Amino acid sequence: MTVDSEPTCRHCGAPLKLTLVDLGLSPLANSYVPPERAGTPDPRYPLHARVCEHCWLVQVDDVVPADEIFSSEYAYFSSFSDSWLAHCRAYAETMTDRLGLGPDSLVIEIASNDGYLLQYFVQKGIPVLGIEPSGSVAKAAEEKGVPTLVEFFGTALAKRLAAEGRKPALIASANVLAHVPDIDDFVGGVAALLTGDAVYTVEFPHLLNLIDKVQFDTIYHEHYSYLSLLAVEEIFAGAGLRVFDVEELPTHGGSLRVHACLNGASRAEGPGLARVRAAEAAAKLGEAAGYQGFTRRVEAVRDGLLDFLKTAKSEGRSVAAYGAAAKGNTLLNYAGIGPDLIAYCVDRNPAKQNTLLPGSHIPVRPVEALRADPPDYVVILPWNIRDEVMQQMSDLAAKGTRFVTAVPEIRVT
Ligand SMILES: [Zn+2]
């Protein structure tokens, strides 16, 4: 797909004529800039989220060369918070009980990272297999006792594993489905690995929350798809899968965990399915009306933040940001905010410190920079961890620093 030709749906091939929001030209959200490249403008690509009016898959144009996405995506290291690990441990407990998993079962996770999830099944004596394309991360998993295949998941790998006689009782994946460019090949691979009543669970940020809470800053090039239950049921059905239950989770600003099985499996429908279907129908996610008007709400968020920053500047107040996250970069670049309005951004990840944010070129510093010279305002870019950050920074609040989030509207505490 190129910018000039009419874009088509990556699932069903229908022409994409309905815009959710066009965020203009934006650099890759995870490509942090070394200081020596400060004078060079970053490559920018169209960031345009569109809606398929046939299968209702919301998607961004696939316009970035794959090797650039690959190199930037793997520049970032996931660091797992205590709350996320607790979420994973609880999942392992629940699924072990629900499916009666034991020493003869197999659990596979796709995009298993450093074994953060599968370690909890290993602790229960349940055999596991991780699939993870990044070799350095997979090595960390092996050290935790999580056997890991260093490969990309898709139909070809799934068929090979099935031919080897691997029969998982459970396949899990969290926060990867939205990031695969060929979603049909991925879901087809899951179907090829399932047998009998085996279950696939998949977690993804819920499109309903993105729209409701104007979370447009979660849109970036590496995030190809923005998923509703409606679209997921359609895509899964095309691969011979049936969704039988859905859970609503608070993670990432509101996620879904979908439980699916083969069409012919005997799994009974859970209560979450009707509830989430009804919520999406009420929000008109199966009609163009559910998506129209989003752009206007995005512009209001942008204008609210710009007004706040310009007023702060005119009053001589100092402003810094917290969290060099992908979502912050989408927001800053769309709003055209640079170091004149936000002097610097702090981050706990040493790999990001002493770089510049892509596009905006706001310098990234260690968190201690805030304590060395407390600013008047700190804009928390990853709004989903607002409470956690304010707790960590309570000593700054005591000195008069105030905390700000911009989505879904300006909030100053
Ligand atoms: Zn479609």
Q: Per the principal axes of the C-alpha atoms, what is the gross shape?
A: globular
**Distance between termini?**
45 Å
C-alpha-based Rg, rounded: 22 Å
CATH superfamily of the largest domain: Vaccinia Virus protein VP39
Notes on the protein architecture:
The chain has 413 residues and is an alpha/beta fold. It has two domains: 82-266, Rossmann fold, CATH 3.40.50.150; 295-412, Rossmann fold (3-Layer(aba) Sandwich). Helices cover 33% and strands 19% of the residues. It contains 14 helices and 17 strands. A seven-stranded mixed beta sheet has the order 6-5-4-7-8-11-10. Strands 14-13-12-15-16-17 form a six-stranded mixed beta sheet. Strand 12 (319-322), helix 11 and strand 13 (345-346) form a beta-alpha-beta unit. Helix 5 (155-163) packs parallel to helix 6 (183-193). The termini are far apart. It binds zinc ion.
Describe the structure concisely.
By secondary structure, the chain is an alpha/beta fold. It has helices at residues 66-73, 82-99, 118-122, 135-143, 155-163, 183-193, 207-212, 229-238, 271-282, 294-314, 326-335, 368-372, 386-392, 394-398; strands at residues 18-26, 45-51, 58-60, 107-110, 128-131, 148-149, 170-174, 199-205, 225-226, 241-249, 255-262, 319-322, 345-346, 364-365, 377-380, 402-405, 411-412. It is 33% helix and 19% strand.
